[in-house]
Amino acid sequence: MRDILVTVIILGSLPFILKAPSIGGLMWVWVSVMNPHTQGWGFATHMPFAFIIAVATVLGLVMTREPKSLPLTPVSVLLLLFVAWMNVTAPFALLPESSWEQWNKVMKIMLMTFVVMMVIRTRRDIVRLVWVLVGSIGYYGVKGGIFTIRSGGTERVWGPEDTFIGDNNSLALALIITIPLMYYLQQNSDRRWHRHGLSAAMLLSALAALGSYSRGALLAIAAMVLFMWLKSDRKLMLGALLAAVTPLLLAFMPERWAERMDTINTYEEDSSAMGRLNAWRMAWNLARDRFLGGGFDVSDASIFARYAPNPLDVHAAHSIYFQVLGEHGFVGLFLYLALGMATWHTASVIIRRTRGQAELRWAHGLATMSQASLIGFAVGGAFLSLLYFDMPYYLMAALIATRIVVERQLRQALPRHARARGKDAKAVAEQP
Question: How far apart are the first and last CA of the chain?
C-alpha cells in the first residue's frame, strides 16, 4: 500500500511539475531529504523517483516562460566555487574508483541544489520549501519520539537505511536542524491545529534526538536552544518553558543514556572518540601532504596506514570540517567555511533589513530560525560526516530567495514612502 501511495503521488505530480518547475523543486527536496520510497517494502524501494523528478523539473524549467537564471549572490557564487574545486580535486583522488562513485552522487545533489535555487523565487515557494523540509524530517521525529516513549528510551532511534540520515547520529542532527524551522512555522501560523501539531512535533523530535543516544546531538541541541533563547522576543516565557520541559525530557531517559552522555567528559577512555581524533589527525596530515587533498572518500586502510597516528584504527572523518579538509585540502576547507559565513551573513542582512517591518515579519522569523538551524549544524556537524547532506544546501536556497524577495519588496515600498513625504511637504507649503 505504501509503495502504491508513493508511486501515485510522484507520478501524479509530473504534469504539475512540467507546468510549474517550482513544484518539481519541492518534490525533489521531499524525495531526497525524506526518501519516502524507503518506507515501503516492495517495488517502490527500487524505483528511480529522484531521477524522474529531476528530469521533469529540468524539462519544466526549459519549457516555462519564468526566469531561468541562477541568482548570483555571495552564497550561490561560493557554492559554485566549492563545487568547481571538488571537480578539480576529484581527478587526483587517491582512490579513483570509489571517489568517482561518490563524485557522481554529490554532483547530482549539487546540480539539483542549483535548480532549486533557480525555481524557488516567491514567498509562497519559500514557505512551501520550509514546510517540505519540516514534513520530511519531522515524520521521523514524530515516529522516533513515539518509539522512544514506547521503549522507555532503552532503544536507539535510527533513520531510514541507506540514506544520509540512516545513522542514529545523523538523524539526530537532522532533527535538531529542523526543530527551529518547526518553531518558525508555529509562530507564523494562524491555524490552531497547526500550532498544536507543530508543538507536539517539536517535543517528539527533541525526544527522538535524545533517543538516538548521540552525544554530538546533545551538544548541538544545547547550542541551538541557547541561541533560540537569546534571539527570542519572549525570553521569560521561553526560558520558563525550557526550564519546565528540559528536566522532564532528561528524566525520562534511562540510566544507560545518562552513562553514555557522561562519556563526553571522559572521551580519552572512549574508543569511538579516540577513533575520531585519529581520523581527524589523518585528515590534517593528508591535507598538509597533498594540496588537493585525497579526493572523495578517503576512509581506507591504505590511506590511514600512510597518514594516521594509529594506522589500524580506520574511521570515517566524523566531522564535516575534517571531511572537507581530508578530501579537498585547505582550499576546500576555506571555501566551505566561507560558504557557511556567507549564509550566516545573508540571514543577518535579512534580519537587519526586516526589523520593525510588519509585512516582512515572516522573513525576519525565517532568517532568525535559519541561524538557529545553522548553529545546530555547525556544532553537531563537527562530529559527523555530513558534508554532502543536502538539507543545509536547501536552507541556503531558501535564504537566497528570501533576501531577494525582501530587497524587491523594500525597493517597491520606497516610491510609496517618497510620494507620501511629497504630499506631506506640499500640504505644509500650502498652509497659510
Answer: 80
